[in-house]
Amino acid sequence: MGISVDKALGVHQYALAMQVERSRVIAGNLANVDTPGYLARDYDFKTALKDVASGVANMSSQDRLPDADFSSDLRYRVPMQPSEDGNTSELGVEQTQFASNAMDFQTSLTFLNLTLGGIRKAIEGQ
Known about the structure:
mainly alpha; cilium; two-stranded antiparallel sheet; single chain; Flagellar basal body rod protein FlgB; bacterial flagellum; Flag_bb_rod_N; 2 strands; elongated; FlgB
């Protein structure tokens, strides 16, 4: 019986991909914090991860998860303090979300490294 790398890594490879995409979106929000009428966007991370997790749980060892497509999970952000010019991007919120996303990325990357190290040790028989 062969090992399925997709199944062994679970949702973490998709979490990394989504965190990279989320960094791009939040950086766009930060770049447009002073643009009148700009509507800040962000991902519904929990919903996207639940969808991927259900796909991982239901797959057999021969199945492969499809490529990540998070476009349907991109939502407009509701501002805490609406501005008069219609811009919904708030500097403090965007900076906090960016920092939080960076920490989540590092955590996912560390977990993946540990998982791959465990797989390597199993293959080598250690």
